[in-house]
Amino acid sequence: MGRRSIKKSTIAKYWLKDKLNLLEAKDLKENKFLMKLALQDWSESACWACGRYEDDSGHDWNVWNNAKYLEICHLCPHSLGGSSKVDNLVLLCKKCHKAAPDVKDKEFMKQWIGAKESWMSMQTKSAENIFELYNVTDKMKTYVSGKKKKEFFKWCDDNVGFHPGGENLATYVAAISGFCKSKGLK
Length: 186
Prior knowledge:
The chain is mainly alpha-helical.
């Protein structure tokens, strides 16, 4: 069976089949790859390394097949002799697939997947860094979300532009900082 003919749901089902055994495994705590698999929410498709997911609207195995952002990845690369059998395949988002190690020994890939920081954790750290960068305090957040909300949005109309594709956190946080600065609030 070639890589192209294997469904993502088949890969997910293969790794899930031992979930109960994974939870009882002695080396689970030492093996972060097994830990991630054991804790995976199998009813929702997500990158097995970073946990990134998109709303696939469905709760059956087809949710995995419909997850266009997930790529079928080899633990041992095909170019280095890795098979396209399900036991050598995992599901990663494009970003993680590109960043993952391309080496013959599968254990390096498993170790990397197990150690990869979650997408949500990275987003949270990124947000915290942006608030820090622009010196936005809890007092400022409360100020713009309270009685000054309408005034804040009016100020934004005149002082904030948005890139195609919508708003982003850095713009929003900079706007909070700029608005509060214009009001003399620190």
